[in-house]
Amino acid sequence: MLLTVVTLCLYAMAAVPPSWTAATWRRLAAAALLGAFVLHLLLLLIDIGGLARGTQGMRWGFGPVLSMTVWLMIGVHTVESRFLPLPSVRMALALAGIGGVVAALAFPGDARHPASALAPLHFALGVGSYGLFAVAVMHASLLDRAERRLRGVRAPASAGRPAPAGLAQAGMPLLLLERLTFRFVQAGFTVLTLTLLLGAFTVANTALPWRWDHKWVFSLLAWGVFAALLAGRRLRGWRGRQATRWLYAGAALLLLAYVGSRFVFEVVLGRASP
């Protein structure tokens, strides 16, 4: 509990909006986000392993999976910020970190023993694909916002009036941001493909029965949407909002495949998910 409180305090410190802080405090806030990121990992290892509650088996419930996804997003941002500073994202990630820690604490799920030796790897790949697509969605939202602001800059200029102060910097490196977005989409698609193949291989080589449940249906639908997005971008040059809408749709389907279904079972219905 003490570790949880310290992690939440660090995330809260990092969540202070950049416009409210001086340069020194901004550096402290960035350091607080990094410290919370490290402690968050320790919490995940303790909580998913069931060590904090003295239980055996891994906890793969709604809360831990959501918390791991947020942790991966913060990890990618921590590395990426060394090359492409995005200070406006820090507050949103810190708030998401608070939500992830609280969700894992409130909804830990049931302890389960892996059905096969490959189950932990399947789980890790699945959560990895969640994290990569979550980062892609974050970049896509920044891309959409930057394009909207650029349109706001062009409108006054076309009317013969000077652009509003501060909006001239709204462009950011749009091409770089777009390139990063779809690199994460490609990486997430690759990891998702490996996850589905490993899941099918595990079922085929164990006594587990094959079931067309919600996880398979929504995962395959999401895979199809992402495949269409990558194909459309490569063959037809999809860009801008047309591309990001496909990304948002695929991410929503993927969210329903695992986290969404477990949220319904564990939180709404109040029972263990199948």
What class would the helix/strand composition place it in? mainly alpha
Order of helices and strands: HHEHHEHHHH
Beta strand %: under 5%
What is the domain total for the residues? 2
The overall pLDDT average reads 79
Tally of helical segments: 8
Strand count, sense and barrel status of the largest sheet are:
2 strands, antiparallel
**Fraction of residues in helix:** over 70%
Q: Which shape, going by the Cα principal axes? A: flat
Work out the number of β strands: 2
* Major sheet strand order: 1-2
Radius of gyration: 20 Å
Uncertain segments are 157-171
N/C terminus separation: 29 Å
Oligomeric organization of the protein chains: single chain
What does this 3D model show about the protein?
- Mean pLDDT is 79; it is low at 157-171.
- The chain is an all-alpha fold and 274 residues long.
- The protein has helices spanning 2-14, 23-48, 62-80, 87-106, 119-158, 174-204, 214-236, 240-268, and strands at 58-59, 111-112.
- The chain has a two-stranded antiparallel sheet.
- It contains 8 helices and 2 strands.
- It has 2 domains: 1-113; 117-158 and 165-274, no CATH class.
- The chain is 73% helix and 1% strand.
List the helices and strands and how they pair.
Blueprint: H1 2-14, H2 23-48, E1 58-59, H3 62-80, H4 87-106, E2 111-112, H5 119-158, H6 174-204, H7 214-236, H8 240-268
Antiparallel strand pairs: 1-2
Helix pairs in contact: 1-2, 1-4, 2-3, 2-4, 3-4, 3-5, 3-8, 5-6, 5-8, 6-7, 7-8
